[in-house]
Amino acid sequence: MYQKQLLISCEDTLHILSLKPPLSNGSRLQVVNLSQNQLKSLPTGLLHLIHLQKLCAANNHLSTLFDIPATVNWIGLRKLEELDVSGNCLISLLTSVMHSLKSLHCLDVSRNKLNAFPDPWACPLKNCKASSNVIENLPNTISIFWRTQLQEVDFSDNCLKELPSYIFELEAIVSLKLCGNLIETLPAPNKWKCSKLKTLDLSRNQLGR
């Protein structure tokens, strides 16, 4: 259970903006909520919060996750389990940051302007929400890194034109939402290995066209 929390939302003052080492290194913050502000990038002080487990920055004006100076070295976010940056203006996700999230369980990047999903990395991702973007293709290593972890996936309301067979090789997946895309065909039946799948939403596509 998260105990050390910092809630910064609505009209609160953004004190977190001043978080810099060694203050942030010594902080035991586990939860930070920056939702519903006017941020264009996340405060770099967050990169030094080594105990942070949950970060919510939904409904801001983020165009990039972090604006990291070349001289900044950081070791935080290794324990981050939940990241919510939905409802922003993100076009891409910084690989250097995403691939450092070794403990990530839940990722919500829905309602942005992403044209691609980042290449998967070694983390125990279980829940991935990326609806309402402009993603055209999915990385072909999803089933390699997250084959036995991913349980809930939402890529609805994007620009996917085809559905790669490896999506159905996710052995732990329970819910797969792909509605509102441009999908015309499905992989051959012998490619379907998702025996735990309970919910499959393919509505509002181009199947049978």
Automatic annotation (TrEMBL):
<dbReference type="InterPro" id="IPR003591">
    <property type="entry name" value="Leu-rich_rpt_typical-subtyp"/>
</dbReference>
<dbReference type="InterPro" id="IPR032675">
    <property type="entry name" value="LRR_dom_sf"/>
</dbReference>
<dbReference type="Pfam" id="PF13516">
    <property type="entry name" value="LRR_6"/>
</dbReference>
<protein>
    <submittedName>
        <fullName>Uncharacterized protein</fullName>
    </submittedName>
</protein>
<dbReference type="InterPro" id="IPR050216">
    <property type="entry name" value="LRR_domain-containing"/>
</dbReference>
<dbReference type="Pfam" id="PF13855">
    <property type="entry name" value="LRR_8"/>
</dbReference>
<keyword id="KW-0677">Repeat</keyword>
<keyword id="KW-0433">Leucine-rich repeat</keyword>
<dbReference type="InterPro" id="IPR001611">
    <property type="entry name" value="Leu-rich_rpt"/>
</dbReference>
